[in-house]
Specification:
Elements: E1 11-12, E2 15-23, E3 27-33, E4 39-45, H1 47-50, H2 53-68, E5 77-81, E6 88-92, H3 99-106, H4 111-130, E7 133-134, E8 143-146, E9 149-152, E10 159-160, H5 182-185, H6 193-208, H7 218-227, H8 237-246, H9 257-264, H10 276-294, E11 313-319, E12 322-328, H11 337-343, H12 365-368, E13 382-389, E14 392-400, E15 406-413, H13 423-432, E16 440-443, E17 451-455, E18 465-471, E19 474-481, H14 490-504
Antiparallel strand pairs: 1-2, 2-3, 3-4, 4-6, 5-6, 7-10, 8-9, 11-12, 13-14, 14-15, 15-19, 16-17, 17-18, 18-19
Helix pairs in contact: 4-6, 4-9, 6-8
Length: 507
């Protein structure tokens, strides 16, 4: 998560940008305001990807699929330009937690809320299937709990019914193992019934906090999906039959979305469909969005140091069906006495006198990749940079394999004379922005850097380990994701890679 400032005059298409909401491997997501005053979430792709015609073709398919799905249970596409120099896509801004985040924060949903969830998902799938599409990746992190109900998102791997065109390399896994259907796990031709199986698995997680199929590795999970019965012991009795019907191994035995709606039955109207703890997660971001556009700031805290920006609020933004967990950060600049007071509190002695250890321009991934220490068994490394953005330059390397593992390293340099304070002070500000009380742990004994922050695992779709380190005027981030490196194993991988980044990028 990065704090960044946008020029008030910056536009993407007709939308005035207000804040950077999040970043990912494909690009960034920004909060925008349309000419009519409505909020939109705009996805912009990386310039490097924009030059890839294969990627542009996939992006066009995503735009087309998102536009074809109409209804109140998906995030509506407002506008898009897949042929722009930097392709972009603007969708309805839908603040609210994903189902996985809601369960993580508030616990499993009560039975009545799960019935509403089931009905909303059935309506959404009916809209998707009516458009002649199959979602193929329905799971808790792709379900938003919005103020007025459910939104299904992420049409990045959607396919037309009967279209078996390969969209990735041979042997790659399309979908999320714990929530995919047996026929999807076996690589067979898919029908709309595959989405119904995923719906059933998603409901199990909503009821119990865990998926119906578990295993210590991706192959084991897929074996359970194909050959074992789901674990429904903790599912409320009133929902067990409904969910079991969705999880039938034979696609022909599963209900259609319309049949599922009939089984769920009529639900009483409700202006607040979710438990109060979830409603809180929905409503907080709306106030923050208003502050972003209006230029207001949050009240100052009364602690020893005055916070130069409000506490980050976790928001899930639907962007043309693409979910991005982001931190909305607003407030006045960190410059001046507020910032100096802040950095004086935590591991900051002498930063104003520190000389830069690292040069202004960081090396590219290609220049240092052979020096960076990652486990064997990962595929070819991909990378980009150095890129100058938001007052500092950074570069990144990413390693992946076919079993769903991903390891990422990023390094960012800050230079004295190119911002307020020394390079070390600027790096300290950026580094401390990654700190979240209760979610990060300080590590002052790394041995290879001034300090480190370990971010706790945040559930489905997030890295198993994420480590931030600061060494004088450089901040590095290492993230380890995938079944091969669970919590307890990934820490050593992250530490070793971070140490090699510190050693290599300055030489």
């Amino acid at each position: 998560m990065e704090r960044s400032e946008l020029s008030a005059s910056e536009f993407v298409g007709p939308f005035r940008t207000v804040a950077v909401l999040g970043r990912g491997g494909m690009g960034r997501v920004v909060l925008g305001v349309g000419p009519d005053g409505r909020y939109v979430a705009v996805k912009q792709v990386h310039p490097e990807l924009a030059e890839d015609e294969g990627f542009r073709a996939r992006f066009r398919r995503e735009v087309d699929a998102s536009r074809r799905v109409a209804g109140g249970y998906t995030a509506a596409v407002i506008d898009a330009d897949p042929d722009a120099e930097m392709p972009w896509l603007a969708s309805q801004f839908v603040p609210g937690p994903s189902l996985s985040q809601a369960v993580d924060a508030a616990g499993p949903l009560p039975e009545e809320a799960v019935r509403r969830l089931a009905a909303g998902l059935a309506h959404a799938l009916a809209d998707v299937h009516r458009a002649g599409l199959i979602h193929r990746d329905l799971k808790p992190s792709n379900v938003l709990l919005a103020e007025d109900g459910v939104r299904v998102i992420d049409f990045g791997i959607v396919r037309a019914v009967g279209d078996q065109t390969r969209i990735t390399h041979a042997g790659a896994l399309i979908g999320s193992p714990a929530y995919m259907s047996p026929e999807q796990a076996l690589g067979r031709e898919l029908t709309p019934a595959t989405d119904v199986f995923s719906l059933g698995a998603t409901l199990v997680m909503a009821c119990t906090g865990k998926p119906p199929f578990a295993g210590s590795s991706v192959p084991r999970i897929l074996h359970e999906v194909v050959h074992s019965e789901p674990e429904l012991g903790d599912v409320p009795a009133g929902l067990r039959g409904i969910i079991a019907h969705c999880l039938a191994k034979d696609p022909a035995d599963r209900p259609t979305p319309g049949e599922l709606l009939s089984t769920v039955g009529e639900l009483a109207p409700s202006a607040r469909p979710w438990p109060e703890a979830v409603n809180t997660l929905v409503h907080e971001p709306l106030a923050v969005a208003g502050g972003l556009v209006g230029g207001t700031t949050a009240p100052q805290t009364s602690s020893r140091w005055r916070r130069p920006w409000p506490r980050p609020l976790i928001v899930v933004v639907a962007v043309a069906g693409v979910v991005a967990a982001v931190g909305l950060t607003v407030g006045r600049s960190f410059l001046g006495d507020t910032y100096r007071e802040f950095i004086a509190d935590v591991r900051s002695t002498g930063l104003a006198q520190k000389q830069d250890k690292y040069p202004a321009a960081p090396p590219s991934c290609q220049q240092v990749r052979d020096k960076l220490r990652v486990p064997s068994g990962l595929g070819q490394v991909a990378g980009f940079g150095p890129v100058e953005k938001y007052g500092s330059a950074y570069a990144r390397c990413t390693w992946t394999n076919r079993t769903g593992d991903e390891i990422e390293a990023e390094w960012r340099f800050f230079s004295t004379g190119q911002g307020e304070g020394t390079g070390a002070e600027q790096a300290k500000w950026f580094y401390e922005h990654s700190y979240e009380r209760g979610r990060t742990r300080r590590d002052l004994d790394l041995g290879f850097a001034d300090e480190g922050l370990w971010q706790e695992p945040q559930g489905d779709g997030y890295p198993n380990c994420r480590l931030y380190v600061r060494e004088v005027n450089m901040v590095a981030k290492v993230a380890v994701t995938g079944p091969r490196y669970p919590s307890g194993t990934c820490e050593a991988v992250a530490r070793e890679l971070a140490a090699s980044v510190v050693e290599s990028v300055g030489s």
